[in-house]
Amino acid sequence: MNNLKSLLKQFGLKSQEAKVYLSNLQVGEAKISDIAYHCDLPRTTVASILERLEKQGLVTSHRQKGKQLYWIEDPQVLTSQVKAHLEITEKLSQELKNFYRTIEKKPQTEIYDSEKTIQHLIVKTLSQLRKGDEILTWDNPEAKNYQQIVHEEKHKLMLKLKREKNIQTKTLIPFGTDQYIRSFSKDQPIIIKILPEGIDATFSVWIVKDKVVFFSGKYPYATLIEHSEIVASMKNWFQFMWNISTNI
């Protein structure tokens, strides 16, 4: 009996509701007073509970010779309701997933204006990546943005993180700057393409998952932008430039 009460409570019935339900199930068709006697609860309490259970479809009633009789028509009704609730829960779960964070947030922006903070940003970004993730970059090796920010010790740490996680980098560089990057490319898993002549920039760009980072080692400074639409646009732009660029 206690196990049944516990299961009914897990289904959603309150303690007294479970008690009245099981009493009615055992007694069969009966008056409120008989059910109240069997479950040892006040008649008014039982009457209120039976009314609620009837609204839920768990109890049936009819009048006979001026008296209201209650009975459990079929315990299978409870099972059917559980199945119906499960179906509704599955549908609701899917709809809630589709609804989750559908209102676009404003871009999140962070500024880094020292070698130390930019180094921390780079290492933190690499640390958060998962195995097999990809980094898209636009870089001008002649400007030496990385060399001015990422010194030898930090550079080794970056390469170690990238190797451990098998992080692939795709890099676009301006026309005529490939001689500055050839030896460097041997140290890491990287694919490099040369942009068409005339397309140039002295700053560097990282496109990493849901973030875009613009940075320069000259000043130094870095700006991180986190926004799904901006990142998607940057990825589309990068892919277009990648398609029209030539292999190194």
Automatic annotation (TrEMBL):
Pfam families: TrmB (PF01978). Transmembrane segments: none annotated. SUPFAM superfamilies: Winged helix' DNA-binding domain. It comes from the Bacteria. InterPro entries: ArsR-like_HTH, TrmB-like, Tscrpt_reg_TrmB_N, WH-like_DNA-bd_sf, WH_DNA-bd_sf. Signal peptide: none annotated. Gene3D superfamilies: Winged helix-like DNA-binding domain superfamily/Winged helix DNA-binding domain. Residues 8-71 form the Transcription regulator TrmB N-terminal domain. PANTHER family: HTH-TYPE TRANSCRIPTIONAL REGULATOR TRMBL2. This is Transcription regulator TrmB N-terminal domain-containing protein. It comes from Candidatus Falkowbacteria bacterium CG10_big_fil_rev_8_21_14_0_10_39_11. The lineage of its organism: Bacteria, Candidatus Falkowiibacteriota.
